[in-house]
Amino acid sequence: MKVLAVVPTLMLILLGSLTFKRINAPATGYQHALKGKAKNVALSGIFLTLAYLLLVPPVYYAVDSIMPITNATDLLSKYCALVAVAFLGGHLSQAYGSTFARRWTVGMPGAVMLGLTATGLLLTVLATDGPAPSPQLLDYATQPSVRLNTWLVLIYVAYVVAPLIRPAYLDARRNPLAIGKVASGMIAGGFTLSLLRAGSYPAEWYGSKDLAYVYMLISYASTALVVIGLALFAYARRQKKPERELGSALSID
Amino acid sequence: MPVSAKEFKSWLDAASISTSPAALSALTGLNRGTLGNQLRRGNVAESTVVAVARAAGLGALQALTAFDGYRDVLSRPVEPSAAEVLSQVHHADLMAELQFRTSKTHYPRELRSHIPLIEFPHDGSHRAWVDALDPGDLRHRMAAESGMALTYIITSLTENRLSPHLAVAASRATGGSFASGLVVVGLITPAEGGWQVRAREDELLEVSDDALVELISARINLLQRRVKQRKEAREYAEKMTELLG
Q1: Radius of gyration of chain A, Cα coordinates, nearest whole angstrom
Q2: B225 touches chain A (CB under 8 A)
């Protein structure tokens, strides 16, 4: 189980550094990241970084000590993650031009789903018999309420990312930039992993407890793929790849 | 469409060349693993046959006649037609020629006499060659001749990736030189295909004014489409990097 305590820290380093790089890049970095067309991606990165920051044990215990209910920090972390996913889903549906994804994840349907998930998470935390703070509720992982809590998060993520897999995959095939192809391929791969984990959660629920951390690593891998994919797009923008690689349509040099 | 490994081995035996991938690799400089894979899978690339023929001092075209689909490549004169040669001149060189003919004062030929023509294959050169041969329905005839889908042929031309098999199909359908197609797709060198050393330069000097202008006009039409496609591709890439980056 020690692995699970280390992974959020590693994820935090990855997310934090990439988000910091995104919003603190020289020249137009800050302007573009927080005020430009990609501001939702930056906001998503900030919320996701916050979600992982709250899971780091020292931070978790410190925050939980001032919370009205035990393990409310886990709830707060998950709310941050949900908001990050909502921002990302809405933004990607627009970027990839998917009206289907936009119809289901943005506006009233998206808000209702987010509200239901948030309420469900609150109720499951209240229903958990957890007298002491436990990052990621790992000490109470066998309780049905905790399992339901985890599944709710997975279902919400799957709900948002599922309609985006095909548009991301199509972009991975048609993007004229090699780096764009790789980036969208990673995003599509990450979303597919998220969907698979949500779908296979019943097997995880009734399966061996020893394998639980393997399933959680799938979610971390999925997050890392999406985050790195978006970072590659940011790199392509900073390096002005479209202008450099697709400059003059006449040049043969 | 590659040649069969069985035929390849028979040809190697007939030419007293070892069939082992290691020996072939040492002979040609091709990757041993690649050669081994081709032999194991039963499909040997035409470029491998040509590489072995060159290394063994055999004629590349002569070597190809040992394989199905290529047996008749020497049955027609190998020399290219003027239209085929001109099809491999880049549109920028065609336009340079137009300028030289327009004004010796403003565009003196001597200014770039030491600069060679743009090498082929270049963007669109496969398509330009097919267009030079085309009596009107060549793509359909290539499809019938080769058994390939029409869309595959069109995509191959758009991407400038015509295979030797399709090049032979085009030549067969039009009655032209088989060797020229193989030169155009880069399987054999212009010298191996019977092209004169300065074939393109000479044809460019000899082409009539009206033929030159017609050729440029046709190429400009293609270029216009390509520029539009590239512009759209660039705008798409810019939009994606701007929105996600």
Answers
A1: 19
A2: no
The two tokens of residue A241 are: 């790849």
Nearest CB neighbour to B234, from listed A91, A94, A242:
A242
Where residue B56 sits, what CATH number does that domain have?
1.10.260
Give exposure, A51-83, as e/b (b: 16+ Cβ within 10 Å): bbbbbbeebbeebbeeeeebbbbbbbbbbbbbb
Please answer yes or no on whether A175 and B227 come within 8 Å at the CB atom.
no
CB nearest to B233's CB, from A32, A95, A246: A246
pLDDT per residue over A65-113, tens digit each?
Answer: 999 999 999 999 999 999 999 999 999 999 999 999 888 888 899 999 9
> Do B106 and B17 fall into the same domain?
no
Residue at token pair 């023509």: B117
Domain ranges, ordered by start, for chain A: 2-239
**Does B157 fall in a domain?**
yes
Q: Which of A30, A175, A239, A251 to mutate to test the interface with B (most CBs of B within 10 A)?
A: A175
Length of chain B in terms of residues written: 245
Residue span of the structural domain in which B184 resides? 82-206
Q: Based on the domain organization, do B60 and B126 belong to the same domain?
A: no
Residues on A contacting B at a C-beta cutoff of 8 Å:
32, 36-38, 41, 91-92, 94-95, 171, 174-177, 180, 183-184, 230, 233-238, 241-243, 245-246, 249-250, 252
A2-239 has which CATH code? 1.20.1070
Q: Is B241 on the interface with A (CB under 8 A)?
A: yes
Say whether B236 and A233 touch across the interface (CB within 8 A). Answer: no
Residue B222 within a domain: no
Residue B193 in any domain: the answer is: yes
pLDDT digits (tens, 9 = 90+) for B68-116: 999 999 988 889 999 999 999 999 999 999 999 999 999 999 988 889 9
Is residue B75 assigned to a domain?
no
> Are B50 and B149 in the same domain?
no
In terms of domains, do B98 and B47 share one?
Answer: no
ipTM above 0.85, yes or no: no
Q: Are residues B90 and B49 in the same domain?
A: no
- Do B202 and B88 lie in one domain? The reply is yes
How many domains are there within chain B? 2
Is the alpha carbon torsion for A20, A26, A29, A34 positive or negative? positive
Which pLDDT tens digit goes with each residue over B58-70? 999 999 999 999 9
In sequence order, the 6+-apart residues with CB closer than 8 A to the CB of B61 are B73, B74, B78, B179, B182, B188, B192, B193
Q: Which residues of chain B from 204 to 223 reach within 8 Å of chain A, CB to CB? A: 223
Chain B residue numbers with beta carbons less than 8 Å from the beta carbon of A37 are: 242-243
A-contacting residues of B 153-212, CB under 8 Å?
Answer: none
Contact A37 B238 (CB under 8 A): no
Reported as half-sphere exposure (CB side, CA atoms, 13 A), residue A87 has a value of 19
